[in-house]
Specification:
By secondary structure, the chain is of the alpha/beta class. 46% of the residues lie in helices and 12% in strands. α6 links the parallel β4 and β5. The protein has seven helices and five strands, in the order ααβαβαβαβαβα. α1 runs antiparallel to α2. About 8% of the residues have low confidence.
Amino acid sequence: MRTVRVALIIALTCLLAFVLVGCGEKVGTAPDGNEHEIEKAAKQAAVDFFQNRYSIVDAQEVKDWVDLGEIMTVIDIRPESDYLKGHLPGAVNAEIDRDEESTTEQIEAFLALLPQNPESIVVVYDDYTALAGSHRAAIYAADAGYTRVCRFLGGAIAWEDAGNSLTKK
């Protein structure tokens, strides 16, 4: 049932993006007007989701969990320099390579941040949808036996775009 709900949310989000294309002066949903790149990223995210064992969440879902004080582990997988510039409230950092397979050390550092309870919520995020690091991080957590793994596709950029503040260290 949850899979159907998430698939419907993805489909409706894509439809809404296409509808909103003509609603402003800016062309498309991409800041640079390159809608094709967003289309490719959304398609890849859907393929990744259906082939794997994690959920996809958006900024509002994560914000609701934060506001409710939900017990969860939020892992920012961006480089430490990006994390220090601003991250989601309560997030911890373990860099996972965005473009290539992660090193053994990166994977071990990521796994060390996972909670003891494999039924705990684990949220992983990067900067934006097209980056594959959060996909790999979600797979690492699922492979380690975690059953409530969530990939926050839009990450830090979507968080701010939704009107939320990043925490800076």
